[in-house]
């Protein structure tokens, strides 16, 4: 099975759409061409020269990374300097670099869900909403005999989801009338004659961002030349997505015991703790990466403890003053999402499509001594 680059990008953006990224984040294809056939994929947190060397060694011509390789505008591209040498090596060996950053943090099943699942958090909810899904209602009239076919086609395209329930529709039988005029090729009836057909009015909800895809699936499955359908905007809010998660531990535990649980779950040798180690905690806020500035939101959400990386001295003092305990496992724990990326791509394209693997390079710049 040949995988074109644009199909790899589509697979990632179906999971972590670009519209979920925060403003000005650097995501998407940063190096190379979407038309390059995928010979192998290396999944990494960061794109370093060691990661690129590994891609070359294993024959991977695509790197899917979490952190951008180009974040600030380039002023020059000098291959006698470290940054330029990295870009030069990518171009010389025909390696494409695709980045999913805050959109993957936010996505269902992405970074923050992986970190929450590692601690067994229950009743999780979004900590910082950044995207409120707009919903539409589509109503389409279809002959009774084609009702089930159309319903299934629209739901396969993404319509009909309410929470964890799929294929949510309302169906009402009635009589449709039409008269085919000159030049038409009617599926039912004859030119110039008024027809009456028993039809079903099928109504369902659809997220605004996939509206066109659902309409296209509807048109392809519908037997009529000119299907009759209506689209209505809905005031009912759709799914909320955003940064971080807040959830409940299976049972209360001391802060020091939660710290040990994090070390085991995240595979880290140590972490920083702010607060009394014997304090009991039960409601946990988690935000992968650098989230110290969001600690007031963790308090607002009722968290006893906030887990995030790169907490600075003054933020730690402020959080402690405001009654919040902190656990800082570092920025690099985001690497836990890499296995999830590999699994999803293999599920999409199959085990035999092309080699898809996680990097063996540890890009964490910190050592503990």
UniProtKB/TrEMBL annotation:
Pfam family, one: DUF34_NIF3
Keyword DNA-binding: no
Lineage, highest ranks first: Bacteria, Bacillati, Bacillota, Bacilli, Bacillales
Recorded GO CC terms: cytoplasm
Taxonomic superkingdom: Bacteria
Keyword flag Metal-binding: yes
Species the sequence originates in: Kroppenstedtia pulmonis
Name of the featured protein: GTP cyclohydrolase 1 type 2 homolog
Binding site for a divalent metal cation: 66-67, 105, 331, 334
């Amino acid at each position: 099975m040949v995988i074109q680059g644009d199909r790899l990008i589509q697979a990632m953006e179906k999971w972590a759409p670009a519209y979920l990224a925060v403003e000005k984040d650097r995501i998407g294809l940063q190096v190379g061409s979407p038309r390059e056939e995928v010979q192998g994929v290396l999944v990494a947190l960061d794109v370093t020269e060691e990661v690129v060397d590994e891609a070359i060694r294993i024959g991977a011509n695509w790197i899917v990374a979490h952190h951008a390789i180009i974040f600030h505008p380039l002023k020059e591209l000098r291959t006698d300097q470290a940054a330029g040498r990295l870009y030069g090596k990518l171009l010389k060996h025909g390696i494409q670099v695709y980045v999913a950053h805050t959109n993957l943090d936010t996505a269902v099943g992405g970074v923050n869900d992986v970190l929450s699942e590692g601690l067994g958090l229950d009743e999780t909810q979004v900590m910082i909403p950044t995207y409120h899904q707009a919903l539409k209602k589509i109503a389409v009239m279809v002959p009774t005999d084609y009702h089930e076919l159309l319903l299934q086609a629209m739901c396969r395209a993404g319509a009909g989801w309410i929470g964890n329930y799929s294929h949510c529709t309302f169906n009402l039988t009635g009589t449709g009338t039409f008269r085919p005029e000159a030049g038409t090729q009617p599926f039912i009836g004859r030119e110039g004659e008024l027809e009456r057909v028993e039809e079903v009015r099928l109504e369902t909800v659809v997220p605004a961002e996939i509206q066109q895809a659902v309409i296209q699936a509807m048109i392809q499955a519908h037997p009529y030349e000119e299907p009759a359908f209506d689209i209505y905007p809905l005031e009912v809010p759709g799914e909320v997505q955003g940064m971080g998660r807040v959830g409940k531990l299976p049972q209360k535990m001391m802060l020091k015991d939660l710290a040990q649980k994090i070390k085991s779950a995240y595979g880290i040798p140590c972490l920083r703790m702010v607060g009394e180690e014997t304090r009991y905690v039960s409601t946990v806020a988690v935000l992968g990466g650098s989230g110290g500035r969001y600690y007031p939101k963790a308090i607002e959400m009722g968290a006893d403890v906030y887990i995030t990386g790169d907490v600075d001295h003054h933020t730690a003092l402020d959080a402690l003053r405001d009654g919040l305990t902190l656990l800082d496992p570092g920025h690099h724990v985001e690497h836990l999402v890499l296995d999830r990326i590999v699994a999803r791509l293999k599920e999409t394209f199959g085990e035999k499509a092309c080699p898809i693997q996680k990097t063996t390079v540890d890009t964490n710049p910190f050592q503990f001594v």
